[in-house]
Write a structure and sequence with these properties.
This protein is of the alpha/beta class and 248 residues long. The protein has 7 helices and 9 strands. It is 41% helix and 25% strand. Helix 5 links the parallel strand 7 and strand 8.
């Protein structure tokens, strides 16, 4: 892990840029995090739009988490930002845009081509980042994951025992294999659903929620489109992490 920048925000949060095996990332820690008083870690998921584009939202989420006593971190997704392009993913995204412009249904094969290569490439990278981050003084596990591509969140929650709780956003296309992985997820879950999300199939989201094996899972549905998540939803998600990660 190579640190590339360090910035003290006005609320005492320490923001550090880093690269890990050439992958850019960001780490935020509360002012009171130390080797003697380590804090739990939350991985901040995000859509594949690039860390620079997502930074305002990411730093806002990080500062709110720090106020609750959590460190947060994120890394650039494959094919995003300054990372090398992935032509197959670019073709799948163009196929999706063409399909949606035509008003045609988005088939399973297109969803698989759009999502699975990204998840297959990203999941090991996020796990490698978790290896390094949890070894730093001032940070402890187990960890949580919040937001981003729901299929990536499901993959991590199903396969990495260090993930103790997850807040997932039902706002992206879901491959068939993700349903199989959901049946292996047993950690506490807090799932957000925008009822009128223009880019999301509501019935698919409800079916995925039903597939989760977690005995402690809750679905929080709000009226409105993809970007209409109410401010109260953030506090509900924060309370979920306070209950589960602080207890852990």
């Amino acid at each position: 892990m190579h640190l590339t920048s360090e910035l003290h925000l006005d609320d005492g949060v320490l923001e550090r840029g880093f690269t890990l095996d050439g992958i850019p990332g960001l780490l935020w820690t509360p002012a009171d995090a130390s080797a003697s008083t380590p804090v739990p870690l939350i991985l901040l998921g995000h859509p594949p739009l690039g860390l620079s584009a997502m930074y305002p939202r990411l730093v806002s989420r990080a500062r709110h988490a720090a106020a609750d006593g959590f460190a947060t971190a994120t890394i650039e997704l494959p094919g995003s930002g300054d990372r090398p392009a992935r032509p197959a993913l670019d073709r799948a995204r163009e196929d999706l845009r063409r399909t949606m412009r035509a008003g045609d249904p988005v088939g399973d094969d297109l969803v698989d081509a759009l999502v699975l290569p990204l998840v297959d490439a990203a999941a090991p990278e996020w796990q490698a980042a978790l290896d390094t981050l949890l070894s730093l003084p001032g940070i402890t596990g187990p960890a949580g994951i919040s937001g981003g591509l729901i299929s990536l969140g499901v993959r991590l929650a199903a396969t990495d025992p260090r993930i103790a709780a997850a807040v997932l956003f039902a706002g992206s296309f879901v491959p068939r294999v993700t349903f199989d992985e959901a049946r292996r997820v047993t950690v506490p879950l807090h799932v957000l659903l925008q009822w009128d999300d223009e880019g999301n199939d509501r019935e698919t989201s409800l079916a995925l929620f039903d597939a989760f094996a977690s005995p402690d899972k809750s679905l929080h549905a709000h009226m409105g489109g993809h970007t209409g998540v109410p401010a109260s939803a953030a506090e509900a998600a924060a309370g979920f992490f306070r209950r589960h990660l602080k207890k852990a």
